[in-house]
UniProtKB/TrEMBL annotation, chain A:
SUPFAM superfamilies: Ferredoxin reductase-like, C-terminal NADP-linked domain (SSF52343), Riboflavin synthase domain-like (SSF63380). This is Oxidoreductase. GO terms for molecular function: 2 iron, 2 sulfur cluster binding; flavin adenine dinucleotide binding; metal ion binding; oxidoreductase activity. GO terms for biological process: pyrimidine nucleotide biosynthetic process. Transmembrane segments: none annotated. Its cofactor is [2Fe-2S] cluster. Gene3D superfamilies: Nucleotide-binding domain of ferredoxin-NADP reductase (FNR) module (3.40.50.80), Translation factors (2.40.30.10). Keywords: 2Fe-2S, Iron, Iron-sulfur, Metal-binding. The lineage of its organism: Bacteria, Bacillati, Actinomycetota, Actinomycetes, Kitasatosporales. Residues 2-97 form the FAD-binding FR-type domain.
Automatic annotation (TrEMBL), chain B:
PANTHER family: ANAEROBIC SULFITE REDUCTASE SUBUNIT A. InterPro entries: 4Fe4S_Fe-S-bd (IPR017896), 4Fe4S_Fe_S_CS (IPR017900), Helical_ferredxn (IPR009051). Residues 259-291, 340-368 form the 4Fe-4S ferredoxin-type domain. It comes from the Bacteria. This is 4Fe-4S ferredoxin. GO terms for molecular function: iron-sulfur cluster binding; metal ion binding. It comes from Embleya hyalina. Keywords: Iron, Iron-sulfur, Metal-binding.
From TrEMBL, chain C:
The lineage of its organism: Bacteria, Bacillati, Actinomycetota, Actinomycetes, Kitasatosporales. This is Cyclic nucleotide-binding domain-containing protein. Gene3D superfamilies: Jelly Rolls. It comes from Embleya hyalina. Coiled coil: none annotated. Residues 8-77 form the Cyclic nucleotide-binding domain.
Length: 265, 385, 152
């Protein structure tokens, strides 16, 4: 059991019609540092808490991208600057970018799955000498649903974007995010891949990368299940042998694949 | 303390000594909880004297059946697991985790719950249940983040174990290697002996505080006849287990039978009521509830037991991950017998048999494991053939 | 050349690939060119070397709806392989496109005359269709949409 630590909302940005990013600063003491891929349990006063991955880590400042799907996410989405929320964490496993040194990087994000990958891309951009080519492939629902558009790192990382459905104004790509893999620049045996998105998208992407010759041991995916405690005590986030709040959310594909193949595990 | 020293520190007490034990533990500021007869069952409740122990009562157990029966021998501990376990006290069904207050400018202050908890003394902890406590210790305090609600109760608890001499028809502690002899972790261990030499208890201390309590007890030095009678009764109990698990690696069995037909069979009987999870001494799952008072500026976080049989247990925004009853029974059984090893380094089953007794339709986890093992054998044979 | 390393040509054995390329000529389309129209005769196909092509469907009262885009290494057009040899989508260049262009008729003849070559080409086209079908079905799930469907 951990107790929420008060964090003040210092910035709030509307990303898409149902998604906003909130920036938090510790009101007093800060939590231990978060690593890209890890998550926090963020508490809206009196409503409850939900797991949110960190989409930015700037000293003691944390940022979370929240999509409205329920009461707690709705409250956090609408929170005003200056209000206080509670934060617990850091929880779970991170992307462990350092294990990918010397490799081509392929980062594949679907929908809000870009949020936990954002700090990973920023970290890779901060130390380009450690990696070979960086490919960031983003799939979104529609152009209006794309996150972090126009942020400088997107140009620096040369992101490739595709959407499921496009309106007339869209001049970019239309199609599943996996189609971008064909056009990405990487040498499969020397590649490390990082994937986050809805589970069918993760499965399709990992399968394509493996088909292209990427070592399954070099593919890491971020998985989602119900989480209540974040500390491995409530039992909700089990995926077979894994407690995803403790052994995940970032899991190696070799470990994850056979578990995701079992229905209703 | 080595076993040899413990043996040298053993002693024998009689029923008056049992009364004294309860009095001494209470005098040390402890809330003494032990078995007592209430509402047609032997339950665990606070007791203030030896007279409240279930002297002369036993139980008849079967799948989906629990009956109190009078015993002629007057034994206090010749019964096996009842509807509760010690998790009721160490990992209570409902606890407040924290309170939060919000002031006028929206600042919130969160306070961890520090309601004083009783210093418990548990009298009559069966070897299977002693292991169950060790299993929950590992789950709730063994990781990076400890559960302070559990730890506060657990750290203060004094455990008086009682070896099993009268296993029930649903017991299988021998298969799970948790009994009927007591394992480590007790402060005091008792073995009840009834024979021509009278009704008495062989007592050993397993901790410093246990030894101190034992020293205060009116006792006599253990004699070899009592020691060997105690040993024999426990050894005989091992031969009278009502149930067994298949003699295979259960963890592997669970991993290899995720697609077995048998899950459909058991699911045709399972009501997904979750009784098995409530009575299981190791099931630990919880959910949380956030409440506010009428001002809206005082909020509390409560935690209560939840069951993996609840459909909402795995709710994600699109719906429950484990929607079918089949997947929920399979989750419970494979977690208990299999993936618990991956998560916490041991089995989650201690062989107490409660899930069998308290299942309203009499589903028997040992029978299911045997059936899965047979089905696996058949499919392996088919593949080989 | 990456267009050979992976994509459609990458899936062909070198012998068959070289043979297919004997039918190729280089083609360039300025941006906004309509390469073909729905229901038009599917008498050619292309392997895109650079640029982006949008496949669209005509919907009265609204601009052509783009259902998929194709880029470097992708096969543009497969209706030429199956009767009635009519395009079922339209194609428009988003950006300037360079491609290998093939006439369908001689390739179909070569496939018929040399079953090994024909099978190889047909398998490659089938694989492209299968992948696009798989991707389209996945998109049908509207995975990134609001849980339960629709917009919030």
């Amino acid at each position: 059991m951990t107790v929420p630590v008060p964090y003040r909302v210092v910035a709030h940005r509307v990303d898409t019609p149902d998604t906003a990013t909130i920036v938090l600063e510790p009101a007093d003491a800060a939590l231990p540092p978060f690593a890209p891929g890890q998550f926090a349990m963020v508490y809206a006063f009196g409503v409850g808490d939900i797991p949110l991955s960190v989409c930015d880590i700037d000293g003691p400042r944390l940022a979370h991208t929240v999509r409205t799907v329920g009461a707690v996410s709705g409250a956090l989405h609408d929170v005003r600057i200056g209000r206080t929320v509670g934060v617990r964490g850091p929880f779970g496993t991170g992307w462990e970018l350092s294990e990918a040194e010397g490799r081509d990087l392929v980062v594949v994000a679907g929908g809000i799955g870009l949020a936990p990958l954002r700090p990973l891309v920023l970290a890779a951009l901060a130390t380009p000498e450690r990696y070979r080519r960086l490919n960031v492939l983003i799939g979104g629902r529609t152009p209006d649903d794309l996150l972090y558009c126009g942020e400088p790192w997107q140009a620096a990382a040369g992101v490739r974007v595709t959407v499921d459905r496009a309106g007339p104004a869209w001049t970019g790509e239309v199609g599943l995010v996996t189609t971008l893999i064909d056009r990405a620049d990487f040498e499969p045996p020397r590649t490390a891949a990082f994937i986050c998105g809805p589970e069918p998208m993760i499965r399709a992407t990992a399968a394509d990368l493996v088909h292209r010759g990427v070592d399954p041991d070099r593919i890491r995916v971020s998985l989602e299940r119900t989480m209540h405690c974040g500390t491995g005590h409530c039992g909700h986030c089990q995926l077979g042998p894994l407690l995803l709040c403790r052994d995940g959310p970032v899991v190696g594909w070799t470990r994850a694949e056979p578990l995701l193949m079992v229905r209703e595990l | 303390m080595t076993g040899c020293e413990r043996d040298s520190a053993d002693a024998v007490i009689d029923k008056d000594g049992m009364d004294a034990l309860i009095t001494i533990l209470a005098a040390r500021g402890r809330t003494v909880v032990g078995p007592t007869v209430r509402d047609g069952a032997i339950i665990l409740a606070e007791i203030s004297g030896g007279a409240e122990l279930p002297y002369g009562w036993g139980v008849e157990l079967e799948a989906g059946r629990y009956r109190l029966v009078a015993r002629d021998d007057g034994a206090a501990f010749a019964h096996s697991a009842g509807p509760q376990s010690w998790k009721t006290f160490l990992h209570p069904p409902r606890v407040r985790e924290w309170s939060a207050d919000r002031d006028a400018d929206g600042t919130i202050v969160v306070t961890a719950d520090d309601t004083p908890v009783p210093a418990y003394a548990f009298l009559g902890v069966r070897p299977c249940d002693l292991r169950a406590i060790a299993v929950q210790d590992r789950v709730l305090t063994g990781g990076r983040y400890g559960d302070s609600a559990y730890r506060r109760r657990r750290d203060g608890a004094f455990l008086v174990a009682v070896e099993c001499t009268e296993p029930g028809a649903t017991c299988f502690c021998v298969s799970m290697e948790t009994g009927p002899a007591v394992g480590p972790g007790y402060d005091l261990a008792l073995t009840e002996v009834l024979d021509g030499d009278g009704h008495r208890f062989l007592v050993r201390a397993g901790s410093g505080e246990g030894a101190a309590v034992l020293a205060e007890l009116p006792s006599r030095a253990a004699d070899s006849a009592t020691r060997s009678a105690a040993r024999d009764r426990v050894a005989e109990a091992a031969d009278r287990m009502g149930r067994t698990m298949p003699l295979v690696d259960l963890r592997t069995l669970m991993r290899e039978t995720l697609d077995a037909e048998r899950w459909n069979d058991v699911t045709s009987r399972c009501l997904t009521c979750g009784n098995c999870t409530m009575v299981c001494p190791t099931c630990f799952c919880t959910t949380v509830e956030d409440v506010t008072d009428l001002t809206g500026d005082h909020a509390e976080r409560w935690r209560h037991w939840e069951s993996c049989f609840d459909r909402d247990f795995t709710h994600v925004p699109t719906g429950p991950v484990r929607d079918s009853p089949r997947s929920r029974y399979r989750q419970w059984a494979t977690h208990k017998l299999g993936t618990w090893y991956d998560q916490f380094g041991s089995s989650g089953c201690v062989g107490c048999g409660r899930c069998i007794v308290w299942c309203p339709v009499g589903i028997d986890i040992t029978e299911e494991a045997h059936a899965l093992n047979r089905e696996r054998g058949r499919s392996t044979a088919q593949e080989a053939g | 050349m990456s267009v050979v390393r992976h994509g459609f040509l990458g899936a062909l054995a070198p012998g068959h690939r070289d043979r297919l390329l004997t039918f190729a000529r280089e083609a360039c389309f300025p941006a906004e060119t309509r390469v073909f129209e729905e229901a038009g005769a599917a008498d050619r196909f292309w392997l895109i070397r650079s640029g982006l092509v949008a496949l669209d469907i005509h919907v009265p009262g609204r601009r052509a709806a783009v259902v998929e885009t194709l880029g470097e290494g992708d096969l543009l057009g497969w209706s030429w392989m199956f009767e009635p040899y009519r395009w079922h989508l339209g194609a428009r260049c988003h950006a300037a496109v360079t491609a290998y262009e093939f006439d369908a008729e001689p390739v179909r003849l070569a496939c018929a005359e040399d079953p090994a070559f024909g099978l190889a080409v047909t398998r490659c086209v089938a694989e492209v269709i299968a992948r696009r079908l798989k991707a389209t079905r996945t998109r049908l799930l509207d995975l990134y949409g609001f849980p339960g469907g629709g917009t919030p």
